[in-house]
TrEMBL record:
Gene3D superfamilies cross-referenced by the UniProt entry: 3.30.1370.110
PANTHER family, sorted: DNA ENDONUCLEASE SMRA-RELATED
Record field: compositional bias (Low complexity): 77-86
The UniProt record lists the keyword Transferase: no
Natural source organism: Chelatococcus asaccharovorans
Domain Smr: from-to ranges: 114-204
Keyword 4Fe-4S among UniProt keywords: no
Gene Ontology terms for molecular function: endonuclease activity
Coiled coil: none
Segments of this protein annotated with the region Disordered: 26-55, 68-90
InterPro entries the UniProt entry points to: Smr_dom, Smr_dom_sf
Protein name per the record: DNA-nicking Smr family endonuclease
């Protein structure tokens, strides 16, 4: 009976067989099939498959970074939109000495006054915010905020039972991010406007008013 001839082993099978019989001496006349040489990838100019893949990955990574396709053409998809940077809070500017003197002498007019006497902290905070924003909308530039000197019951914060708290907190509120787009600067008022218990507040012009 004629012995049936088996099919030839492919490259992967030969490599697997070499791994299995590694270190085993073959029987006489039964040679182990030799490993076929590795074929370079088409278009790789003699480079191995692993090197070609590494180059392809590096090329694609660079193309993604530059927003173009690996072939050199610009990508069709739009780049992801970047979040706009948060607007910078403008710094406060102290009142100029000449302006302070003009206000104290009455040669420059006070356009509005807010009296916070007897208000609780939360009430005073809300009143201050509403007052300065409204004054800016009405195109006022100089206003007075009366906090009280804290020497009597009028300067007492009724919620915390602490005297003079508004005198300390109002400057902090004026310098806060909530009002920095409205307030340009502030300074201690003249004696006839409240002295140490009041502040001159200079307001910024609204953006639509700027030339």
């Amino acid at each position: 009976m004629r012995r049936r001839r088996g099919r030839a082993l492919d490259k992967e099978e030969i490599a697997l067989w070499h791994h299995v019989v590694k270190g085993v001496k073959p029987l006489p006349g039964r040679a182990i099939p030799a490993l076929p040489p590795e074929e370079p990838d088409p278009g790789s100019d003699g480079q191995s498959g692993g090197e070609s893949k590494d180059i392809a990955r590096a090329t694609q990574a660079l193309a993604d970074k530059l927003g173009v396709k690996a072939g050199g053409k610009k990508g069709v998809g739009k780049a992801a939109p970047q979040k706009p940077a948060a607007p910078k809070i403008p710094p406060l500017a102290p009142l100029e000495r000449r302006q302070r003197l003009a206000l104290r002498r009455g040669t420059e007019a006070i356009e509005a006054v807010l009296d916070l006497h007897g208000m609780r902290q939360t009430e005073a905070h809300a009143a201050l915010i509403g007052f300065v924003r409204r004054a800016q909308r009405e195109q006022k530039r100089i206003v007075v905020v009366v906090t009280g000197k804290g020497g009597g019951d009028e300067g007492r914060d009724l919620m915390f039972g602490e005297r003079g708290v508004l005198r300390r907190l109002v400057p902090q509120w004026l310098a806060s991010a909530e009002l920095r787009s409205v307030v340009l600067g502030y300074g201690e008022a003249g004696r006839h406007h409240g002295g140490t218990g009041a502040l001159y507040v200079r307001l910024r012009r609204r953006r639509e008013e700027r030339p």
